[in-house]
Design a protein that fits this description.
Length: 279
């Protein structure tokens, strides 16, 4: 198997993976979607009653949205996650009570009129745990309204709930290959002249593609169709794939990919051990 990186940013990746098959690509796709853990807000506590600021002004706890909707919106905010550091709460040495290894605590303390954003989530303790995507609106507070919220984030996977889903737009397609039909060879000179950039040439009386990347295939096919429709076709290579995905920012694309592969590796090792132990 070979991997070529077309693009790798903090939050997205485009790869060409060759020497493999659709079931392997699909396993990787599913691992990226539903198996990688990340932190997300799971419990939200709202202060009830009036709130008085330093100048003695009184505010009513509340907002135009139901508390449940605010809690749901907070759950979807990407929380920066260090997978080396955190463990699942139910597997933690604290016995699930909550400790720095399994839980991040945040507070929101805002008084209206204002818009409460994801950046208003204030981590208790380590400030590096502040939300990076800080302009996600949560709710607009009117004059006299205030929110005092305590929230805890914990580890989960997309299999449990979509708020723990790290990757979006995960997909793959066959790598395109050019099929030059006999009909095309008959009109070789016309096609060589019609296709820009010298992408096609004539060799021994036959047409040959100079470039075969996906973009070149599309250009050749589109221009060739203008001369003789369907003389040049695009097929898919069933052993080579264009694979792409994005993350929500809680993990980088590279960390997500390595974690997904680790998870697949562990699953297959478990299967191997189970089979080896059979009599
Ligand atoms: Zn713990």
């Amino acid at each position: 198997m070979e991997i070529q990186i077309l693009e790798l940013t903090d939050q997205s990746a485009r790869l060409v993976i060759s020497g493999t098959s659709p079931p392997i690509m699909n396993a990787l796709r599913r691992a990226l979607l539903s198996e990688i853990p990340k932190m997300a807000i799971e419990n939200v506590e709202f202060h009830m009653g009036s709130i008085i600021d330093e100048e003695g002004n009184e505010f009513e706890s509340g907002s135009p949205l139901f508390d449940e909707i605010i809690a749901h919106r907070m759950g979807l905010i990407p929380i920066p996650t260090d997978l080396e550091l955190y463990t699942f709460r139910d597997q933690c040495k604290c016995g699930g009570e909550g400790c720095p290894t399994c839980t991040i605590m945040y507070s929101i303390n805002k008084k209206g009129p204002c818009t409460v954003y994801s950046g208003d989530l204030d981590p208790l303790g380590d400030k590096s745990l502040a939300v990076k995507d800080d302009l996600i609106p949560i709710v607009k507070l009117n004059d006299g309204q205030a929110l005092l919220i305590y929230a805890t984030a914990e580890l989960g996977t997309g299999r449990q709930h979509a708020k723990w889903q790290v990757c979006q737009s995960v997909g793959y397609k066959y790598y395109p290959t050019l099929v030059i039909t006999d009909e095309a060879h008959k009109y070789a000179d016309d096609l060589v002249n019609a296709i820009p950039g010298g992408l096609l040439k004539k060799k021994g009386g036959k047409l040959v593609a100079v470039e075969t990347d996906p973009e070149a295939c599309m250009i050749i096919k589109n221009h060739a169709d203008g001369i003789i429709p369907d003389a040049i076709k695009i097929a898919g290579d069933e052993t080579k794939f264009l694979f792409k995905f994005e993350t929500d920012g809680s993990l980088t694309a590279k960390v997500a990919l390595v974690k997904a592969l680790d998870i697949l590796d562990a699953s297959f090792m478990e299967l191997k051990e189970a089979i080896s132990s059979l009599k």
